[in-house]
Amino acid sequence: MMNTRKKTRLILCMLCLFLNALLHIEPNWSLLFTGEKVSFICDLREGNDTDWNYSFSRNDHLFTTNRTVNRYKSSSLTRGDSGEYQCVADHKIRPVTRESNKVSVTVSGVPRPVLTVSPSWTSPGDSVTLTCSVEPPSAGWRFFWFKAVPDMSHYYTFELLPGGTTGTEQGSYILHGQTHTAGYVCRAGRGDPVFYTQYSDVKFVWSGGEFVQTFIFLHKGINVLFVLTLFVLCVSPNDVSSAVNPAASLTVSPHRLQHFSTESLSLICEGNSTEWRVMKADEDGDVSICLKWGEMTGSTCNTDTRASSGVYWCESETQFSNAANITIHRGDVILVSPVHPVTEGHSVTLGCKLRTENLLYNVDFYKNDKLIPNPVRGELLISAVTKSDEGFYKCRGRKSPQGLETLTSAESWLSVKYPEEAASSSVFLVPLVVGLVSGVLLIILLLLFLRRYRKSEASSLSRSQRTNQSAATDHMINQDESSLTYSVVELKHLKKKEKHDEPDESPVYSDVRIASAADYVTYAQVHPPTGKKSNEGKSRCAAEEETVYSEVKPGTFDQ
């Protein structure tokens, strides 16, 4: 058991720790970067914070003293702000001082995040995952995603991807239906106000096939967005209707993926642009322009012997071309393979070429490092290509039939695309379907317009009739203010006539006089006859059908 002295010392020590100040930082990040702002908080954990004066020090040197609040907010941090921080609190009345613990702060330069793309080579419709990470790892980041837009005066400008305004908590972003060559970047941000990292390096997703433009048609009066995007992988102009033209394409001469280091090659850009540049991403991912390793003449980049292995493509201000993964080989043998993907169902021939143009002997071909049985020496013919034929190919041969030395080429990827028929039919199927939908919507809109027009016309006619009637009425009234007719009707007893065709009913006579129009109504004073009907046997119907006669005389009505 612990003796009494040790217990007392432990209690005093714990009390001392409890009564001392506690310094902590908000936000509480283990690693800080230049440009960020933080707050140092000196927490006494007792009494009222306003009863104390506070001082803050870095590496035992005071940088602010006699503060009445226990919080110090820094300006934008620099590398020189790294060190050990401590706070001291002095009571305003009592001679009491509290010292805090020491907190170590490390300030690093603004980080550049690392972006990776997977896969880097795609077929139309593939999904691509972008992954962004900040090194060294730290907390609190949100990630922002951008696409790279070619800028002919610089390299690229960046545009936010959909939904990227507020960033994502996850360090990944999935692109669905990737269809063509494109570049992407990311950056991270944290804090309030937001502190941003640098942009990452541009990373590309490459497509080996040609693709056509996206057409957008807006029909006036209809909210119809006609978007037609057709991607035709490596289809020559003769294979597709002239109505479908590639937006941008790269042609390599000589037309193969592998070249000797002593060869010069031409990279030709074609498409709907007057200004082009040829780009290259080397094996380390560094991107450079033709002017650094070749000569740009119009839309053609000639490389002489300064070309190196890498992915090549064309850019204009609005377009990316297909890409070609070119290998510059310093050895004596290269594989002869097509630059663009091969159409499924078509044939392709692979060859093996010696630098000296001499014939190679005992040539073998390999796919993914496995020997391919081949009865024909010197070349490999695949009569009907399928997706299963995709892979890395290389060749191996000898300079002489009895030679022991074997020469092996580098590997190149053989890509297979969907049949041209499917792509070609899509060219006409999509416009047909969209055209039909647009036609139906146009008819509906026309019917609605006609219906509204008829309603509007009927309403206008009704208003016109009412206006005419009102005008006619006003005209009649204004013609003669004394045009209203008043009558005094007196019912008088008439003797019954003997003749059968004479009227038996008691007629009614009235005097009608013209009065002033001020009353706008017709008045009649009627006096019923006092006598009884002489013909009691007359039918009830005849008795009820009494004719009324009136005599109209112009005059003045006396009320």
UniProtKB/TrEMBL annotation:
InterPro entries documented for this protein: Ig-like_dom, Ig-like_dom_sf, Ig-like_fold, Ig_Fc_receptor, Ig_sub, Ig_sub2
> Could you give a single Gene Ontology term from the biological process aspect?
immune response
Q: Where is this region: Disordered?
A: 526-559
- Give residue spans, biased composition: Basic and acidic residues: 533-543
List the transmembrane segments: 428-450
What PROSITE patterns does its record include?
IG_LIKE
Q: Which GO terms describe its cellular component?
A: external side of plasma membrane
Q: Which GO terms describe its molecular function?
A: transmembrane signaling receptor activity
Domain Ig-like: residue ranges:
35-108, 111-188, 331-408
Coiled-coil residues: none
Q: Please state the span of the N-terminal signal peptide per the UniProt entry.
A: 1-24
Instruction: Write out the entry's keywords from A to Z.
Output: Disulfide bond, Membrane, Signal, Transmembrane, Transmembrane helix
Write the protein's name: Ig-like domain-containing protein
Q: Which organism is it from?
A: Gasterosteus aculeatus aculeatus
Taxonomy of the source species:
Eukaryota, Metazoa, Chordata, Craniata, Vertebrata
